[in-house]
Structures are given as structure tokens and as C-alpha cells.
Known about the structure:
By secondary structure, this protein is of the alpha/beta class. It has six helices and seven strands; from the N terminus they run E-H-E-H-E-H-E-H-E-H-H-E-E. 21% of the residues are buried.
Amino acid sequence: MTHAFQIVVALDGSDYEPIVLLHALDLAARYPSVDLHFLSVVNDGSDTDRAVREMAARVLPAFDGFDATEWRARMHVRTGHPAAEICAFAAEIRANTIVVGRFGLHHPGKHLGSTASRVLDDAICPVLVVGFAAEEAGVGDRPCEECERIRAETDGERWFCASHVAPDRVSIAPLIVDGAWTGGGLLW
């Protein structure tokens, strides 16, 4: 009997939870045998049975389209501090990976992504932190259209237009030895 790949999926009930679920299930699909542990951490005094039922109602539809015949899924609810409980649970089951979002619940006065940061610091296994690309999150500027055109035309051999090329920027250069392509590398 082979050991199932253990994935802890930290869920917070936020609007971003479907993205975390999608990444967790995508990761699970890469392994022949998987144990998925969906974990929600609630406040002391919360109805944990109700929390499990609500989590199941959100999680089960995400399985549509996945071949989960060799997967086992379990719902877990703990009370306490989210990062500490996520890390402790992962250690208890000897998890191979933790999947967590960096979005948080956007509580006023809390550092965005603080749970994910603490999990990264304290976890005993690799952590997949799921977030938005800057463009999808609505932050940051769009890349220069000329730079994008040059990247596309040169198949990534050049990244910057004349106005953005600077001697202190990293650039990618093909590695060609004796006329044969050997990969690529970074140049400073």
C-alpha cells in the first residue's frame, strides 16, 4: 500500500475561497492517491458541527470535473488562532503540503495575509500560498505595451523596450554553446 499525499487546505469562508479550493484540487490531481484535509478555524464558542456542514456545502461542488476516485476528503474544524491551528494540524497528520490563501477576511487593523505569513514561518512542510496576480487584484500598473510586444516578438529573449532597458536590470539571455541551444540564463 502506498502512502497517500496529505494536503491540508485552509479555508476561511471568504469570497476568495473558491480560488484556494481550485489550486488545492489542481495539486491533488497530480498525485495518484491523495488525502485532502479541509480545515477551517473558528472562534471559541462557535458551533463546530454547523461549521463542518457549511464547509462541506462549499467544498463538495468544487469536486465537479475532477477524477477523485483515489482521493479521500475530510472536513475538520478547530478553534483558536488560525495560523497556529493550521500548522499544528499539518504537523499532527504529517502533511506533505498546506494550501492557504493570502487574502484573509480583510479585518480592519489586521495585516493582509498575516495568517499566510505566519503559516509560512511556522509550517513543517511546504506551503502553497494562493493569491491574485497584481493585475487581477486591481493593483499595480499595466506593463509597457512596447515591452510586451518585444517579449512576444523575440519569444522572451528580450524583455524590455529601449526606454526601459537599463544596465542594472536583470535580462534573460539564451545559452548557446558551439551553436547548440543549452537553455537560458539570467544576466545582470
